[in-house]
């Protein structure tokens, strides 16, 4: 009975959000521009909602709470890196947007193509981007499964539940495109704020009286939990600095982020978002409070159980409808970002691989049709990957976490340094990804540095070195970013 | 002069949240009961929008 109520609430939240977002379809005639980058018409607030919707996934919240529970202070980097990133993006976004507008670009490889004029480089970038994104979509399915398991208590098979929900999402992306994701984000963001105020404010107050007493008790039970380790220790201060720099500079490099930049109405919409998005980072404080509370209330959990520690608190001490509300919100945090990831990877395959390489679907109607077909193909691909190869997922995700941010020097140097060459960028990306993957896969962290950061540093050194030794990019070279 | 101000408005919060953190890695003094490291990071996250807003004013974007 209880499980049925919780699952019913989850279903109402998911179906309600999908139906609400379907309203977005009125008034707009579908074209590739409209479908992939929202017709380049999003204003500041709408884009803010979309970005908050696609950046903060179920794993941002589960992972942040789990890290707080297991490691403590190292989790604080999650609040810092986005903010560092937005300072830097204030300068970079307008340049990316301007190129997109002038050349009518749709995807990340389009941007690389127009700046470096090399079909080989843009194809390499397309393949890396898609191969890195699919496991990330698959990961969201695992999170969805977690939320359904917690809500359902075995009433229905959560695997079947996750499959049904995901097929609904594929159909949803097929129909609506980026505008649908933005509309769904409105509900998702509102529910997230509600759920976090509950787990991050109500729980600490109810169990400990105030955040201050919560931290008193954490200090008593785990004296080292509220500061970082030594300089070169694992998750020490050097690790913190390198991770903030890597993730701050790199987290906006993926195809879904570039599509979101292109969807802005004008440059100032992006500058305003760089200003406003740090405010959203503050909700991470509530996640930290929830993680520390769970550490004291349900101690001793390890691994994925630690990620779900605050769910354990909710399901043990609160009424079923609260559990349904929190898990339903969690399910949206898995589904809404999946729509953006799916749409952007499908558009890369349709535009840059099927279209540019094989001349399939190059007119407006053809491109829309191929993109939608790819939404279904890649979506089902992610589902199959999850159903049959879940255990290998961890290895694939190394590419997601270490690979995508290696694109950033291509934008950064492309914008500010005229001497940047195609071969320099290609050599940099290959070096960076290879080095980061080798270090990450073998768990080597020189001086406690984040392996992705070591890769990024090597990437930049190789990019600059090779660029100085080779001829600048051929063809039309767009103006570097001024002010 | 204005060039330097623009640089500082971006560089100070950026550095405060990244390279400065090893120097503020401590629990005391606690503010409202929260450990100092967390307060430091949260403080700069709150200040950053004000810095970017000022930057946008100087560059006459709004």
Account of the 3D structure:
Chain A has 483 residues and is mainly α. Chain A is 77% helix and 0% strand. Chain A contains 22 helices and no strands. The radius of gyration of chain A is 22 Å and the shape is globular. The mean pLDDT of chain A is 90. Chain B is built from two helices and no strands. Chain B has helices at residues 2-17, 36-58. Chain B has 62 residues and is mainly α. The longest helix of chain B has 23 residues, at 36-58. The model of chain B has no long low-confidence stretch (mean pLDDT 94). At the A-B interface, helix 5, helix 10, helix 11 and helix 13 of A face helix 1 and helix 2 of B.
**Judging from the principal axes of the Cα atoms, what is the shape of chain B?**
elongated
Query: Helix- and strand-based class of chain A?
Result: mainly alpha
Low-confidence stretches of chain B: none
Q: What's the alpha carbon Rg of chain B, rounded to whole Å?
A: 14 Å
Count of helix runs of chain B: 2
User: How many individual helices of chain A?
Assistant: 22
> What distance separates the N and C termini of chain A?
61 Å
């Amino acid at each position: 009975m209880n499980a049925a109520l919780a699952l019913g609430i989850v279903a109402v939240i998911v179906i309600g959000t999908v139906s609400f977002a379907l309203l977005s379809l009125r008034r707009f005639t579908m074209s590739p521009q409209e479908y992939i980058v929202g017709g380049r018409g999003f204003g500041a607030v709408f884009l803010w909602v979309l970005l908050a919707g696609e950046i903060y996934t179920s794993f941002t919240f589960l992972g942040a709470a789990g890290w707080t529970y297991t490691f403590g202070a190292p989790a604080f980097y999650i609040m810092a890196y986005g903010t560092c990133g937005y300072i830097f993006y204030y300068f970079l976004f307008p340049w990316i947007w301007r190129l997109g507008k002038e050349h009518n670009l749709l995807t990340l490889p389009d941007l690389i193509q127009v700046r470096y004029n090399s079909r080989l480089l843009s194809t390499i970038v397309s393949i890396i981007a898609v191969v890195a994104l699919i496991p990330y979509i698959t990961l969201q399915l695992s999170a969805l499964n977690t939320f359904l398991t917690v809500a359902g208590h075995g009433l229905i098979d959560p695997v079947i539940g996750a499959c049904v929900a995901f097929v609904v999402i594929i159909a949803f992306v097929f129909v609506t495109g980026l505008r649908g994701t933005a509309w769904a984000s409105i509900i998702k963001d509102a529910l997230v704020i509600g759920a976090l105020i509950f787990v991050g404010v109500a729980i600490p107050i109810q169990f400990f009286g105030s955040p201050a007493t919560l931290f008193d008790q954490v200090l008593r039970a785990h004296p080292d939990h509220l500061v970082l380790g030594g300089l070169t220790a694992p998750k020490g201060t050097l690790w913190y600095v390198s991770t903030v720099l890597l993730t701050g500079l790199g987290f906006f490099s993926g195809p879904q982020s570039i599509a979101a930049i292109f969807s802005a109405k004008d440059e100032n919409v992006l500058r305003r978002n760089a200003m406003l998005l740090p405010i959203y980072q503050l909700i991470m404080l509530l996640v930290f409070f929830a993680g520390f509370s769970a550490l004291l209330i349900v101690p001793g959990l390890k691994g994925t159980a630690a990620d779900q520690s605050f769910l354990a608190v909710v399901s043990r001490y609160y009424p079923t409808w609260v559990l349904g509300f929190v898990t339903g919100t969690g399910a949206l945090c898995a589904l809404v970002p999946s729509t953006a990831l799916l749409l952007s990877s499908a558009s890369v395959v349709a535009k840059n691989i099927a279209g540019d390489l094989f001349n399939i679907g190059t007119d407006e109607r053809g491109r829309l049709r191929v993109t939608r077909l790819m939404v279904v193909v890649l979506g089902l691909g992610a589902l199959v990957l999850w159903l049959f190869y879940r255990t290998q997922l961890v290895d694939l995700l190394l590419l997601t976490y270490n690979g995508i941010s290696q694109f950033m020097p291509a934008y950064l140097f492309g914008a500010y340094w005229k001497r940047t060459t195609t071969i320099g960028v290609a050599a940099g990306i290959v070096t960076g990804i290879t080095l980061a993957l080798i270090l990450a896969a073998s768990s080597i962290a020189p001086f406690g540095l984040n392996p992705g950061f070591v890769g990024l540093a090597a990437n930049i050194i190789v990019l600059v070195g090779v660029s100085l030794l080779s001829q600048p990019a051929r063809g039309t070279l767009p103006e570097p970013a001024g002010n | 002069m204005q060039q330097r101000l623009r640089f500082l408005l971006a560089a100070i919060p950026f550095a405060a949240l990244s390279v400065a953190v090893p120097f503020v890695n401590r629990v005391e003094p606690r503010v409202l009961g929260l450990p100092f490291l967390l307060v430091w990071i949260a403080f700069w996250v709150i200040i950053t929008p004000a810095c970017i807003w000022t930057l946008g004013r100087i560059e006459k974007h709004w």
